[in-house]
Amino acid sequence: MIRKLAKKEQMNDENPMTISNRRIDRFLFAALLVIAIGVPLSLQLYNERYLVNKLDQGAKVFALTGHVEKGWVSGDVKAWETVTLPGKTLNLKQPVIRVKKGDKVVLKLTSSDVIHGFSLKDFGIFITDGILPGKVKLVSFTADRVGTFTFTCNAICGEKHEQMKGTIIVTA
Fold first, then answer.
1. Any idea of the CA torsion for 76, 66, 35, 47, to the nearest 10 degrees?
2. pLDDT tens string 126-149
3. Residue 156's pLDDT is what?
4. How far apart are the C-alpha atoms of 77 and 131, rounded to whole Å?
5. Distance (Å, whole) CA 141 – CA 106
6. Would you say 114 and 157 are in contact if contact means Cβ atoms under 8 Å apart?
7. How confident is the model at residue 158 (pLDDT cuts 50, 70, 90)?
8. CA angle 106-108-111, nearest 5°?
9. DSSP 3-state assignment of 143?
10. Domain range 59-171, CATH architecture
11. HSE (CB half, 13 Å, CA atoms) of 94?
12. Closest to 131 measured CA to CA, from 119, 117, 112
């Protein structure tokens, strides 16, 4: 009973500014959450809607994600999917893309961590202005010759930069 009275007196004595500050803090926290969740989600939705309009019908589309430690990874890999424990060795498996001669090829390039570059010398493709984390860069070309071709990262991005390679195999 005494505790209830003390608590009631404390609530009556509480400064109206403190109550107002708590409300402002809660509002700012909620706004921060909306921004932290909404901005990445809206960027992803924009990229998907924008890219659908830019892709050629009938093109073979391949997603590649650059990561400092994992190299080029097949697929659209999010940043949280690349978290590794310190001292853990990674199994780097370089992507292999298989297409036929004459195929229109579109590469959807993204980065999950830092700015990467892209080079596919045999088809004259060089991205030098960077592939930014969370942004999609489209690279398209026609596979007009048969062979095995290597693509790399052409922006020094970390210790394992030289391992950022992949292969495109064009068959007849």
1. -50
2. 988 888 887 888 888 999 999 999
3. 79
4. 14
5. 7
6. yes
7. confident
8. 155
9. coil
10. Sandwich (2.60)
11. 15
12. 117
Q: Does the predicted TM-score (pTM) go above 0.70?
A: no
Query: How far is 170 from 172, CA to CA, in rounded Å?
Result: 7
Q: Which two tokens stand for residue 75?
A: 């697929």
Residue 155, H or E segment: none
Which residue type is seen at 70? K
pLDDT confidence of residue 39: 74
Q: Write out the DSSP string of 57-123.
A: TT-EEEEEEEETTTEEEES---GGGG---TTPPP-----EEEEETT-EEEEEEEESSS-EEEEEGGG
Token representation of residue 1: 């009973």
Q: What are 118's strand-pairing partners?
A: 127
Cα gap 100→112, rounded to integer Å: 29
What one-letter code names the amino acid at 11? Answer: M
Are the CB atoms for 120 and 141 separated by under 8 Å? yes
**Distance (Å, whole) CA 146 – CA 164:** 23
Confidence of residue 20 (pLDDT cuts 50, 70, 90): confident
Residue for token digits 């940043």? 79
> pLDDT tens digits, residue range 33-73?
888 877 767 766 666 666 656 667 788 989 898 888 788 88
